[in-house]
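Two proteins, back to back. First:
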Amino acid sequence: MTMKKQDSIVVVASVGLLIYTLALSFLGPALSAIQTNKTFGNQGSVKAIGVGVYWNSNGTNPVSSFNWGMLDPGTTKNITCYIKNEGNNVVTLSMSTSNWNPSNATQFMTLIWNLQGTTVNPGQIRTAKFALTVSASIAGITNFSFDITIIGTS
């Protein structure tokens, strides 16, 4: 009995798949044993210019810092707070970060928020959602800190 070329390809592919599956079943536990995850924490200050930053929606519990807690590589942590225009003029919101420690943390971590460029009327309170994303490829950083500045420009 002779095999057709297509039958030979199917046999070779099946044998290859079988070898690959067996290799994974033996190597999988060994590889997972050498994987490591690092978790790290942060306490960063929050500075507000021209606006108030609060934990509650009625603007009575002020924020002085964010505690990002323990973070794993490849994850995003969200924090919600409230921004209040405490002045008499409409303001446009902006946010920046500074004083990253270690300084190379900016290569592996990104902070964004939902209110960049948003206008806020006097006395108005807006919900701010911050998202700190940690790269899956982060290495050599076990602790970090940075400052957040929120500005309301009229």
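And the second protein:
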Amino acid sequence: MPSTSDQNTLADGALPPVLFPGANSTERRRLAELKAAGRIRPVGPRLYVSVPESDTAETLKKTWSTIVARLFPDAFITHRTALEFRPSPAGEIFINASSNREVNYPGLVLKFIRGPGPLDDDPKFLTIRSSSLPRAFLENLSTGRASESRVLPIEELEARLEKILHVGGEAEINSLRDRAREIADELGWKAEIKRLDALVGTLLGTRSGKVSSAIAQARAAGEPFDASCLERLQILFADLRNPTPGVLDSFTAPDHVKNKAFFESYFSNYIEGTTFEVSEAEEIIFDKKIPANRPKDAHDIAGTFAIVSDQGEMRRTPHELDELIHLMCSRHETMMAKRPEAEPGRFKTEPNRAGDTRFVHPDYVRGTLRKGLELYLGLDVGLPRAIFIAFLVSEVHPFVDGNGRTSRMMMNAELVSRGLSTIIIPTVFRDDYLQALRALSRRNRPGPFVEAMIRAQKFSNLEFSPYPSILKDVTRRNWFREPDEARIVEGTLAAVDRTG
């Protein structure tokens, strides 16, 4: 309940959603007035709300910690609540007590469970206490009918342990297990520590026990995957199950493929910071002139062109994991051949990031690619698979450098293999592309990325021969302009001279 000064303020305006019994006669009188006026109503022992009845259950679930801390100042949070810190699906909060009982509110049940009190290392939570992480795992590994609702499903416990192992390594999970052993000895929890020891040993590969969750099974088999990345891949997969028609490449001019591959190579490198004037790129690709002052940058463009201009190579698409890895690594090796620091053709061995985005850990690359490939094979060929594999490679980020270019190569190989127009991301469209990619990578929104790729395929569907004409065409469409200078011009340009 707010203080008297707060009550005076409340008298003139909005009330807090949840109110508690008054601490003095003035506050109690004010509560009685609010109740008589119909502005608040009781919803259970020592608790009032000011929200409509339809909002009561959700309001109480959201404010559960405030309710417990205020009404039960000696509360000790245990079992699944000490891991999740939110109500269970049934609206339950589990609290240690000297006897078993329940306190019921709309949508919220406070379940007091007889058990040992807090230990010295059981931390504070708000103004109360909660089980330490080692103790909470032991509590959640208790068995029997009485424990069913108060413990997390075993799959979730395994996933949490696997994440501790992933983030903190063997030292962290062993430290947790060591402290759990001490707690189990002190509290007599022999069965619980036996189960925890078996789970940790299985995840570490030192024991051959059984695990239930997919991520724990993958870890035990030596091929763990990134669960967060897989979640985003599944979201994209669901979106791409909707009809996603591609655009046929119907142009047959002799130089069409070569010229389009040139622009693809030029812009795919430009977006990654390897910038040349288009005239310089022409000399690198068409005249084989490598500038003495920038040989590595020049080879990046030449290496990209060597791959994307090879129609035989670009018709190759993966059907199983080793094939996917071979295609990615061989194309990366060709593209980055002059950059030994980028470890051409080899997966990263150290974690990498871009700004606030952390990519898949090296230990999880192969397992995450396997999961991604399983989803990829469930999509229609053509544009759906192209969009998916582009995001898969970009999101896993398996190489030290060259991931964006590799992702676009893999994408366009899917399109070439089905006779569809390849996709180019010109400079002017760079921000649209990257923002759409971030919407999926950071906010789990697939729509912007899918829409951006559909749009890009449409404006990339031009006849790229003869060269002087297409250079004039894409220049007038603002392809070389910076995103803050212009917008891309789509559709027909009637005034463009296509005669060369």
